[in-house]
Amino acid sequence: MSLPVVTIVGRPNVGKSTLFNRLVGGRRAIVHDQPGVTRDRLYATVEWTGRAFTLGDTGGLEPGAESGMAAQVLAQVEQAVHEAALVIFVVDAREGLTPLDEEIARLLRRHVQARIVVAPNKVDRPSHEALASEFFRIGFDQVCPVSAEHGLGVAELCDVIVGALPAAEVVPEQKAIRVTVVGRPNVGKSSLVNRLLGQERVIVSEQPGTTRDAIDTPFTYNDTPYILIDTAGLRQRSKVQQPLERFSVVRALKAIERSDVALILVDAKDGITEQDAKIAACVQDAGSGAIVVANKWDLMPSGADARQQFTLEARDQLRHLDYAPIAFVSALTGYQVSTLFPLLQTVAQARAHRIPTPELNDLIGDAVRNYPPPSYGKRPVRFNYATQAIKPPPTFLLFVSNPRGVRVPYRRYLVNQLRAAYGFVGTPIRLVLKGKSA
After folding, report:
1. Is 233 annotated as a binding residue?
2. 11 annotated to a ligand binding site
3. Closest Cα to residue 245, out of 70, 32, 56, 26?
4. 416 in a known ligand binding site
5. Is 254 annotated as a binding residue?
6. Average pLDDT, whole number, for the chain?
């Protein structure tokens, strides 16, 4: 059973994202004093007294916006309220009822069929509760004063929410493949996300830095569940100076850490840049699976020669990611985008693959006999036992007589033997060497 959706709306800077974080129980949305930080819809599951619902955060609502970023945010908010079973209309109790609040209230009454609860925010003391009474004037029956920052009134708001929603239970679902789209600013990440989803889920703009948060979107393709995560563009560290951009970078890096597969998006016209290589290194260090996606391929010469030349460049510039498949797509036209789905499944399965311990010991034993490691000092290095760790990425514990005697070239040889036997397409392989005392 799909969970009912509760959507938070309101004008800019009234504390919507702070309330979202408070209800979710963590810092899932970026909060900043600068108005208009939230632009795309952000969702999370909330459980309260045995009931569950999906909570959505939205950007600051400016009714009547016809162009620019404000119009795109307005379109996102309209989509969010149309799918909602309940709308939380957040206002600022300290500022009182503003003309923009009244305009939003009229818009909600005209176009929203769901129940609407007004939440005057910033009621930080019981003595401030009288400030909330003014908001009964806008004509909604339920007014629940809260302090999102301090948590006052939040439990009462949750009681109102679950009391108004249809019954729903948390149903165990098939584990979804978590896919994070990463890359430099303006390489087409949000366009690719929208193309994969088949809808305008996230805002697309030529303005760099449009995406600020890590936006999770669950969906299903050919009966396989996915969670697609759009992220902010990652610039060179020396160029990241504003606190808001630093928050965005942290969210993007954390999204990589929790993903099964990362789509490393590069601009085919620019080729592989130094920053692309740094992003790829972050993906490898996080242990995520990887697919290099050359976007804007519709602008490149057709034919196998162009692909071959790009592949050679990618293998040269991304030597640490030589195991990652390369896809050639156009998010703008949809060219070859559907080919990403079988690649995603292949990489996710490879990352989760486990080798039975007897098979692993046979493989390592054969590899060592065929090409023994150099001696360390006057003593040969002996491999005693091998086993695979439980959690991905594929991590192998090798018990040896002296770990320092197994140098980097020989470790690379063992990794190549594992890949030759089991594939492990698109996933890093880690070797952990342990001595007798370990």
Report:
1. yes
2. yes
3. 32
4. no
5. no
6. 85
Burial environment of residue 89 by CB neighbours within 10 A (0 to 12, 13 to 18, 19 or more): buried
Please give the order of strands across the beta sheet that includes 261-267.
215-221, 224-230, 177-183, 261-267, 289-295, 326-328
Distance (Å, rounded) from C-alpha 46 to C-alpha 89?
Answer: 18
Is 189 annotated as ligand-binding? Answer: yes
Mean pLDDT value across residues 146-169: 87
Question: Which DSSP category does 147 fall into?
Answer: B
Going by C-alpha positions, the residue among 187, 205, 198 that lies closest to residue 71 is 205
The confidence score (pLDDT) of residue 78 equals: 78
> Is 187 assigned to a binding site?
yes
Helix and strand counts by DSSP (H, E) for the chain: 11, 15
Q: Is 60 annotated as a binding residue?
A: yes
**Contact (Cβ atoms closer than 8 angstroms) between residue 218 and residue 226:** yes
13 is in an annotated binding site: yes
Asked whether 88 and 9 are in contact (CB, 8 A), the reply is yes
Cβ-Cβ contacts under 8 Å for 143 (sequence gap 6 or more): 117, 118, 119, 120, 132, 133, 135, 136
**Residue 10, annotated ligand binder?**
yes
Query: Strand pairing of 86-92 and 5-9?
Result: parallel
Q: Is 57 annotated as a binding residue?
A: yes
SS3 state of residue 166: coil
What residue spans of 112-208 are helical by DSSP H? 154-164, 189-197
Q: Is the pLDDT of residue 201 over 70?
A: no
Position with higher pLDDT, 297 vs 239: 297
- Angle among Cα 116, 120, 125 to the nearest 5 degrees reads 145
On the question of pLDDT at 351 being above 80, the answer is yes
Q: Would you say 18 is a known binding-site residue?
A: no
The DSSP secondary structure of 323-391, one letter per residue, reads: TS-EEE--TTT-TTGGGHHHHHHHHHHHHH----HHHHHHHHHHHHHHSPPPPBTTB---EEEEEE-SS
Determine whether the annotation assigns residue 375 to a binding site: no
Is 190 a known ligand-binding residue? yes
49 annotated to a ligand binding site: no
d(CA 124, CA 243): 26
pLDDT tens for 256-271 read: 998 999 999 999 999 9
Q: Report whether the peptide linkage leading into residue 145 is cis, meaning its omega lies within 30 degrees of zero.
A: no
Q: Does residue 188 have a known ligand-binding role?
A: yes
Say if residue 61 carries a ligand binding annotation.
yes
* 423 marked as part of a ligand binding site: no
User: Does 36 show up as a binding residue in the annotation?
Assistant: no
Q: Go through the domains of the chain in sequence order and give each one's CATH number.
A: 5-164 (3.40.50.300), 177-348 (3.40.50.300), 357-434 (3.30.300.20)
Q: Would you say 292 is a known binding-site residue?
A: no
